[in-house]
Amino acid sequence: MRKTMLLVLPMIAFSLWANGQEDVKKDSGFVFTTVKECKITPVKNQASSGTCWCYSSLSFLESELMRKGKPEMNLSEMYVVYHAYVDKMENYVRYHGDATFGEGGAFCDIPHVIRKYGIVPDTIYKGLNYGETQNKHSELSSLLKAYGDVVIEKKNGTKLSTAWMKGYKGILDAYLGDLPEKFTYEGKEYTPQSYAKSLDLNMDDYVSVTSFSHHPYWSKFIIEVPDNWLHAESYNVPLDEFCEIAEAAVMDGYTIAWGSDVSEKYFKTGIAMVPDAKAKEGPGSDQAKWLNLSQSDRDKQANDLKNPVPELVITPELRQEAFDNYQTTDDHGMHIYGIAKDQNGTKYFMVKNSWGESGPYKGIWYVSQNFFKYKTLNFMVHKDAIPKKIAKKMGL
Length: 396
What we know:
The structure is a single chain. The protein is of the alpha+beta class. It has one domain (about 30-275, about 310-395): Cathepsin B, Chain A (Alpha-Beta Complex). It contains 13 helices and 13 strands. A hairpin with a 5-residue loop joins strand 10 and strand 11 (about 345-350). It is globular.
């Protein structure tokens, strides 16, 4: 009998441990396992500025440099922002004020600026010339907009002053600093153009991809959002191919500049999903737990996003409706660099944000592929990252 008890007790202990592990699995929050991770530079903080488009795009290009075997680099966001402000104001004036002007921008702004003006390292141009240690652009952007409005104000047919652009750049110089014409970096002398050339990045290699049904698939169109002031075109592909490009790119070692709507209540600190509070079944081990919850408890759990929950099935129709109804807008640019799975096997993109090392993952977000499928406006990727069969249909 004593010998039997010795055998039974470990069995009981193991049973209690296993049940405990199951409870932990259900209520342990999100447990992520990395599937693929590409190299990225450290998380930055755009602070009080609407320049996510620049931070995400340059982070993307910094990863591109590392993918090509170059050392980690830190490129100057504010150098790009300065020139984008200049060209954006010229566009604003040409349209007599009937065009977008503000802090926002799009991924296409970065190749535009680098082609035209070059680029510099962050240590050469910080863009902090106004008594702050981090970006704080509300005063600057208000002044620039007010200046432009005065310039274009109708004055009985009087022509524009020949000094208006010089005066405009004077504001930018005062706040962001004088632009470098030449600089020395790591023992070599460069101009912004020669430094850009030394990076060996061909801006024509980067394409924007989207998926909306109000334009024909397998064609290009100008996405109708205010911040696309350059009227740049994106390749329009069906939703399945859209998602296939993104996942295949990351799995093949490429990263992605990602434009998305983050105004959704399900874009939480560190996590983004599209919960379906009315789902009749849940994934994996959460299914029984989900079925036993009341509707109010399901709503609460979906809002809290403390654990994985069933997600809404995303269709092209649902995606299009959200865009048409202004429920999907061009809110924010981020940088996709990896793929992970949660404890139920659900896939997520690993995303570098530009809000500093905030949240439980120190500035990194886990974005479910359903959220990506639903709320992505467009993404920029190297054309070689696109699967050949899709690239051929795109005409690349």
